[in-house]
Write a structure and sequence with these properties.
It is a single chain. The chain is globular and about 55 Å long. The N and C termini lie close together (8 Å). It is built from eleven helices and nine strands. 35% of the residues lie in helices and 14% in strands. It has two domains: 153 residues, Aspartate/ornithine carbamoyltransferase (Rossmann fold, 3-Layer(aba) Sandwich); 151 residues, Aspartate/ornithine carbamoyltransferase (Rossmann fold, 3-Layer(aba) Sandwich). The strands form two sheets. The chain has a five-stranded parallel sheet, covered by helices on one side. A four-stranded parallel sheet has the order 2-1-3-4, with helices on both faces. Strand 3, helix 4 and strand 4 form a beta-alpha-beta unit.
Amino acid sequence: MQSHLLSISDLSKEEAFQILDTAEELRKISDGPMKKLPTLRGRTVVNLFYEDSTRTRISFESAAKRLSADVINFSAKGSSVSKGESLKDTAQTLQAIGADAVIIRHGASGAAQRLADSGWISASVINAGDGTHEHPTQALLDAFTIRSHFPDFAADFTGLRVAIVGDILHSRVARSNVLLLAKMGASVTLVAPPTLVPVGAEKWPVKISYDLDSILPDIDVVMMLRVQQERMTNFFFPSAREYSRAFGLTNSRLALLQPKTIVMHPGPMNRGLEISAESADSTKSVVLEQVANGVLVRMAVLYTLLGGLPLNAGTERKS
């Protein structure tokens, strides 16, 4: 594995499963009396967030602290960025204070890659979401959550059927999940109105459907996406009511799902738009599990990138 995690493309199938295996070992440790590991003691991890976030920032902060790292939270609001400071100058400041890892969330696609390739900083760079491009650790935690509910697919997702539903066009979560789930062997179907399907999506390793009702009875995992109204500059659907009627996980659609099917959502949820309150709170929903698993998976990523010794033979890093 490289020293950065910028895209799911950076990972082989084996490396992706190794991260999930490491997260599983960390879960066992976290469930015991010792909640913290000394692995990253003396290391400095910086959360460099140019966009607002609750779950991702707190999850990375918790993950780093559980590994005994020092954590610096940097928000663009209230910093020199609001005065016009460039990414280069900010990066050089982080280099000067000795950052070992920089977790960056940025509104521009490619910002994480730019930081990693710039030479401004020697730290490991982890992409926590860049524009509409990717969000690799979200895909990893989603895969970890799926695997915990489908143990028959612990080492290979071949035969697993996943539907990703909603605002595909603006979703970095969707892009990373498509790459990872396909790499792991799952069959992925995108379901969305034509206006919210990206140009060229027919070349992705997916099927595309515009009929949610026909898909739901045969799916193992339903991943609902937030309608990203803040990224929309045009009218992509007639109204919120029409969108919910055609592509929302309503109570009646919840009843179409198989008993074993799970419902996922990366959060935050627009209840009543892409998902009903009853669906979000149903026994099929694993949304809160995703949040909890995010800490474990991000611990595993930090553990791997910053040189943690193998927890066991199954989680050894590639040389």
